[in-house]
Hints:
Strand order of the largest sheet: 7-8-9-10-13-14-15-16
Distance between the termini: 48 Å
Structural class: alpha/beta
Bound molecules: zinc ion
Helix content: 40-55%
Shape: globular
Number of strands: 16
Amino acid sequence: MDLDQTLKELAGLTVYPRSVVQVDGTTYFLARGDEASRRVLGVLGDTSGFEGARHESATGGDGGPLLCPLTPGNAAVLRGRLRWLRPVPLGLKTSAGFGDRLGLATPGHVWAARQFSGIASIFAQQSVRENARTGRTPQGVVDDATWGIFQEGWREPWGADADHLKTPAAVDAFVAAGYTLYTIDPGDHVDNAAHTAPPAEVEAKAQTLPWDALEDTALDMERRYLGRSFDLGDTALTLDREPLWRAAAKYGRAIAHTVRMYRYLADRMGGNDFELEVSVDETETPTSPAEHLFIASELRRLGVRWASLAPRYVGRFEKGVDYIGDLIEFETELAKHAAIARALGPYKLSIHSGSDKFSIYPIIARLTHGLVHLKTAGTSYLEALRAISQADPGLFRQILGFARERYDGDRATYHVSAQLANVPVPDGLRDEALPGLLEQFDARQVLHVTFGSVLDRFGGRLLATLEKHEEVYYSLLESHFERHLSPFIA
Ligand code: ZN
């Protein structure tokens, strides 16, 4: 019997058409139940290694496919069979990170990514902090991305980003899960006080740096920088004594920590290929171009190799909303950061909290010449809530009411400035007004940072509603990310 016919006659199941693939005589597909919304993997042919139950197909008899739950074990076997389901390093191609806190967004991300062949995709991306808040694991995040990619028949290279790794101990679980991009965040070791401290204090701070770990002395450091002009193409940069010592005092310990993390990671990866990102974006004070130059040249001297770097840019990169700051100042600074990234790499500039920054995308696209990584995460959760606001207004009202209660407690570790007083109490709003809250600054941030609490309370209903209305969710994601990615296409 022909395959199309077999798949059509799987009673109670609807096959995702793009998922169907035949390799070495075995057919694989993803399907969802008509009643129960849970998805299943179907395997017809060589089923060794998969765990599931035979489908009682009307005409297939014993020949029906094995239907397998979406377990970690089945995901691993499937990745072993279909090589395009394994994440890979993406090199210097313009890229976008699609963090997905709920584990259901990848098909929507694929819908968007499909339209932008010039942009490489990171479909699995979650930080240690977000894993803790969502109760997910590094492996679970990769598996959810795997199923989404498989569902939509994505065959292009994609990456997996272990985001904001702060300690060596955090690295292992991501290595075991096959991540390809490791974002090292030495932010806890940045001395923000050195940003404004008087020169004598800065010098005292620098004297106490871990010079052994830095394989350096203060004198050698001065010899490498003072009186030297760093060619950045159109322009050049010099470091005088004071800014040099300030850069060292501020970032010296962070550099030492990054080196420690990098060497640990390289050792754990064995011979396997991986990429590194260095991020200091979550620190209080901006990274000046001179400091960026210092960080990059010191990391190079110490043998660290990286694909992307996230300075802390000027202005405010708050969660889920547009850039807040002076666009001219941002542009002037970014031009220098981009020149440094070209001259000392080349490597990509990474834009963290990169979603919804529509006013600066054209500037970034123009100045980086494509050497850029746009990292997003919570914005896909907000699109999920937008879908809920349309599909189940009652649930959305409960979530909003609860988020209002939780905001003051949950906002602590995030860069947000929303005022609760500006977020309407849900009871007074008509159903038609609810989706509009996803356009409102304060409501976006309040909903954005309370995701952990909301998932604890409403996770089951939220996921079930999204699964039931998955096409609504995917379409919202698709158009949302079209807006994000189109400015980066030349
Ligand atoms: Zn970040």
